[in-house]
Design brief:
- It is a single chain.
- By secondary structure, this protein is an alpha/beta fold.
- The protein has two domains: 7-117, Cobalt-precorrin-4 Transmethylase, domain 1 (3-Layer(aba) Sandwich); 122-246, Tetrapyrrole methylase, C-terminal domain (Methyltransferase, Cobalt-precorrin-4 Transmethylase, Domain 2, 2-Layer Sandwich).
- Helices cover 27% and strands 23% of the residues.
- The chain has a five-stranded parallel beta sheet, sandwiched between helices. A five-stranded mixed beta sheet has the order 8-9-12-10-11, with helices on both faces.
- Helix 2 (69-80) packs across helix 3 (100-109).
- The chain is elongated.
- The protein starts with 6 loop residues before the first strand and ends with a helix.
Length: 248
């Protein structure tokens, strides 16, 4: 087995606002020899980069993989053998639909030292910035996070929409814009009430944030009319009503 001399940090860059990144993440980004970063990492985060670091844009997002995941895994191992501090920077949190688990597995398999630096996920930050608490004592005692963009190579969906439609809590769908119509139809087909409130939060926590409010029966048409685009978070449930009170 080849010896490794570097350490890889799987870093969560947070939801978009450059101030919503951890102190530890800022410190490591300022020390890194090489930084491999995703498309969803906001431009304001670059101020924390070591000016002398090699920068590698791997351009990953739900609908665009400039670097295939297998190649990304290989690159991390390769960079760890060339550099002392390797920063793998992702939007949100590395272990929340960020494929950080797969990268960590590859590093462990190749005996590469690594550490995960958690980040604030847009799953909670974007709704909060829109005045929507994902839990509320009177409205939702539970919250469920799902991906709206499953692995296309799967034989069938791993999501049980019958169970999702039956629950009374909040449903948060990450990367849900491209399949919004399909996901809404699946919820309705499985008995979710048509008047269930829905919010779409685009570019949450940033100056470009935009919120679209509707119901399961209207949200697809509203999203198309407003030209909703990724990155966006979809929130389904009664907590969406709080936007009128807390949304500013």
């Amino acid at each position: 087995m080849m010896p490794t001399t570097g350490k890889v940090y799987l870093i969560g860059g947070g939801p978009g606002d450059p101030e919503l990144i951890t102190v530890k993440a800022v410190r490591i980004l300022g020390q890194a020899d090489v930084i491999l970063y995703d498309a969803l990492v906001g431009p304001g985060i670059r101020q924390y980069f070591n000016p002398a670091a090699e920068l590698i844009d791997v351009g990953k997002r739900a609908d665009k993989h400039t670097v295939p995941q297998e190649e990304m895994n290989r690159m991390l191992v390769e960079q760890a053998r060339k550099h002392r501090i390797v920063a793998r920077l992702k939007g949100g949190d590395p272990y929340v639909f960020g494929r950080g688990g797969e990268e960590a597995e590859e590093l462990a398999k190749n005996n590469v030292e690594f550490e995960v630096i958690p980040g604030i996920s847009s799953a909670i930050a974007a709704p909060a910035a829109a005045g929507i608490p994902v839990t509320h004592r009177d409205l939702a005692s539970s919250v469920t996070f799902i991906t709206g963009h499953e692995d296309p190579t799967k034989g069938e969906s791993a999501l049980n929409f019958k169970s999702l439609a039956a629950m009374n809590g909040t449903l948060v769908i990450l990367m849900g814009v491209s399949r919004l119509r399909d996901n809404v139809k699946a919820l309705l087909d499985n008995g979710k009430a048509r008047d269930t409130p829905v919010a779409i939060v685009e570019k949450g926590t940033t100056s470009g944030q935009r919120v679209t409010i509707g119901t399961l029966s209207t949200i697809v048409e509203l999203a198309e009319k407003r030209g909703v685009e990724a990155p966006a978070i979809v929130v389904v449930g009664d907590v969406v009503r709080m936007h009128e009170v807390l949304g500013g």
